[in-house]
Amino acid sequence: xxxxxxxxxxxxxxxxxxxxxxxxxxxxxxxxxxxxxxxxxxxxxxxxxxxxxxxxxxxxxxxxxxxxxxxxxxxxxxxxxxxxxxxxxxxxxxxxxxxxxxxxxxxxxxxxxxxxxxxxxxxxxxxxxxxxxxxxxxxxxxxxxxxxxxxxxxxxxxxxxxxxxxxxxxxxxxxxxxxxxxxxxxxxxxxxxxxxxxxxxxxxxxxxxxxxxxxxxxxxxxxxxxxxxxxxxxxxxxxxxxxxxxxxxxxxxxxxxxxxxxxxxxxxxxxxxxxxxxxxxxxxxxxxxxxxxxxxxxxxxxxxxxxxxxxxxxxxxxxxxxxxxxxxxxxxxxxxxxxxxxxxxxxxxxxxxxxxxxxxxxxxxxxxxxxxxxxxxxxxxxxxxxxxxxxxxxxxxxxxxxxxxxxxxxxxxxxxxxxxxxxxxxxxxxxxxxxxxxxxxxxxxxxxxxxxxxxxxxxxxxxxxxxxxxxxxxxxxxxxxx
Length: 482
Known about the structure:
Layout: H1 11-17, H2 19-25, E1 65-69, H3 75-85, E2 87-92, H4 96-108, E3 117-119, H5 126-130, E4 137-140, H6 147-156, E5 160-163, H7 171-184, E6 188-190, H8 198-208, E7 215-223, H9 227-231, H10 256-265, E8 274-281, H11 286-293, E9 315-321, E10 326-332, E11 344-347, E12 350-353, E13 358-361, H12 374-383, H13 388-399, H14 405-419, H15 427-444, E14 452-453, H16 477-481
Parallel strand pairs: 1-2, 1-4, 2-3, 4-5, 5-6, 7-10
Antiparallel strand pairs: 7-11, 8-9, 8-14, 9-10, 11-12, 12-13
Helix pairs in contact: 3-4, 3-14, 6-7, 7-15, 8-10, 13-14
Protein name: Glycosyl hydrolase family 109 protein
InterPro entries: Gfo/Idh/MocA-like_OxRdtase_N, Gfo/Idh/MocA_oxidrdct_glycsds, Glyco_hydro_109_C, NAD(P)-bd_dom_sf, TAT_signal
Family: Belongs to the Gfo/Idh/MocA family. Glycosyl hydrolase 109 subfamily.
C-alpha cells in the first residue's frame, strides 16, 4: 500500500507492514492484501486454507484466559473488567509501571490466585506474550498502527483477538486481518462498546421487531472535541500518536461508535451490505489554531514538530447499501463541539434520535408531528430492553465504563467464548465498519468528492440473515452461580 501524502514512515510504521513482524515471529502466510485494495472495491481471491468465518463458533471454554496488550489510557481502564469475568494470565505495555499497576489491580479484586506475567521489555515484547500457551484471547488497546501487527501475530499463534477501534486504519491491513482469521480459524473482533450501550441495544430490538417499519436510512459517527487533554494534553502515550494521524490521512479516522450500532440495526452483512461511499471534508484549521493560541501548549511542545495537518476538521460520509438504504457518517474531533454520536434511525413507520433522546412512531400511534421525549421516551426504550441489561445491571453499575456498556461488552464476549457461540460482532462486521477510514481518504484524495466501492469482505455471505444481538438469553451456568 502506498502511504498517504505527508506520511514519513517510522520503524513503527514499517512494523505495520508485517516485514519486521514476520521476521521476528516466524509467521507464515500472506503478509498483506494487494495494494490494489486501495482502489476500494478490490476483493482478493481466497488463498490456500482460507475459509469463511461466518457461523464459526468459539470452541467453548471452561474459563477464558486473557492476555492484555496496552494498559494505558483505554486498556488501563478496562483491566479490572477483564479481571472480573476472565482469568488474566499476561499483561504487556511499553511502560513497566503500567504493567505493575494492572497486575496489582487484577490481584486486588481477589478473583484469581496466580498473578499475570508481565511483559514490558520494549516495543516487540508483545511477541513473547502471544507465544504463550495459556492464553485464549488477546485484547489489544494500543496506538492504531500497532493493531494490525499485534492482531495478526496473536491469530498466527492460535489466539482469538478483541481489538479496540479500529482493527486497522489501512485497507490492505484490514483485508490481511480478514484473511488471517479465515486461515487460522481464529476470530478477530472489534470490541465496539457502543453496540452494547442500553439505548443502542433497545434501538436494535425495536428495529428487529419492525417498530420503525421498513428501515430507510440512518446516521452515526463520532463528534467529540479531543483537543485537550487528548490530542495536545498528554492523556495518551506516546503523547502525539493520535494527533499525528491527522498529518497522514484526510479521513474519518474514528467513525465506528455511531456507525456500528446503526449498521447492526440495518442488518449490514446479514441481508444487506455497504456498497459505495462518498466523503466530504472541511478545511483543516482547528488544530493549528489551538496550538498557536492555547497557553497550555508551550514552545517546547511536541506538536510544533508535526507535519502540516491535512485531515479536515469535519468529515461527512454517505454510505449506500445494496438494498437502497444509506447511512450518513460524521467525524469531528478538532472543533469546539459537545459530544455526539449522531445516532439516528428512520423507517417507514417512525424515527429515533438517541443523542436527542426522542422518538416518533406511527406504529405506536404517535401523531401531531410531536416527538416523544422524557418519560415517554424512556418507557418505550425500557419496553424494548435487551435481556443483557436487566440481567447484568447491578454488575454494570459496579464495574462501569461509559455507563456500564464497557463491562457489558466484555462480559458478553467472554460468555460467547465460554458457551461456544458465534461472536456478536465478527471479523466481517469489523472490517466493513473500519473500512470507512481508508475509503473516505480515497474518496477525498483527489481534492473532490469521488464515490468509491466498498469491498464485500464476506465474499457473498452477506446475502443471508444470521444471528447477532438478536439471540435469546442462553442457558448459562455462570449466571446461575452468580
